[in-house]
Design a protein that fits this description.
The protein is mainly beta. It has one helix and five strands, in the order H-E-E-E-E-E. It has a five-stranded mixed barrel with strand order 1-2-3-5-4. The mean pLDDT is 93.
Length: 89
């Protein structure tokens, strides 16, 4: 978890609605963790439901893999655990 100053800076750098490009850091059954440029201390999460939410669910084997670049939009800031939530599509 980031400290308060890092978290506040991350929210300024990645405001809600802001497009971002990051790299997949880990893939889990519920979604993906994404490393954001310039903020390695911040956790960005792209859950399965937010990965193309207007389509039928995409199976995990079709998700991008670790190290792949992905474009997304910041959908929210989770204050309780200092996570940036992302969506694609």
């Amino acid at each position: 978890m980031t400290d308060t100053a890092e978290w506040e800076a991350a929210k300024r750098d990645f405001p809600i609605g802001h497009p971002v490009t990051g790299r997949i850091a880990a893939v889990r059954p519920f979604g993906m963790f994404v490393a954001l440029p310039g903020r390695p201390e911040v956790i960005a999460v792209l859950d399965a439901i937010s990965y193309h939410p207007d389509q039928d669910p995409i199976p995990p084997e079709q998700w991008p893999g670790v190290g792949e670049e992905i474009g997304a939009v910041v959908s929210s800031h989770a204050e309780h655990n200092h996570q940036i939530k992302l969506r694609v599509g």
